[in-house]
Amino acid sequence: MNYPPKHHQEEQYKNALELVKMYPLATVITSSNNRVLSTHIPLVYTSEGALGTLVGHLDKFNPQISHFEDKDHDLELIFHGPEVYISPSKYSTTQLPTWNYFKVHLRGKIKIKRAAQDVKDSLIAMTAFLEGVNPNYVLEENNPRMAAALDYIVGFHIEITSWEGKYKISQDKNKEDRSRAKQALIDGQSQVIEHIEHLYENHKTKG
Hints:
Elements: E1 9-10, H1 13-22, E2 25-32, E3 35-42, E4 44-46, E5 53-59, H2 64-68, E6 75-86, E7 98-113, H3 116-131, H4 144-149, E8 153-168, H5 175-202
Antiparallel strand pairs: 1-8, 2-3, 2-6, 4-5, 5-8, 6-7, 7-8
């Protein structure tokens, strides 16, 4: 059985990579010794290797580091693009409620980078990527705060071995309904912005 259905699969790797670069916060999932762990961290894509390499770093006290050292298992990574609930009221035809989304799943093999210079390079590259083409901040090589943090950070590279693009965006509907679903997704992003203040209020810290 082909799953997800072919019309929900992204066939162009370049399109999947575009999402990875635009939404770099990945869910990294590992399994070792009958224990599953996950961490949410930004990853930077580089073109090194057949499908590319992801560069990142973790707090050395994160228990997932022990899984990274288990080289018998690949990692699963999920990159999350826009998503939204689609009410049947949005469609011009009779439909059921659904959820539309853009997701990219990657698998890869990890190589830990513990050397201070490797970690430093990872931090600088990550900052440069996230700041974009017109950076407001540049992380300098001799930054004292970075130097003090190096002993508490573990760097790593993930060689991508396979990929799947899972784009469920009402591809099986007629043209009018596809357009309506697209607008619902756009409108849904505005609702997310409205929820940010509420989320902060619920998790307000003292001081």
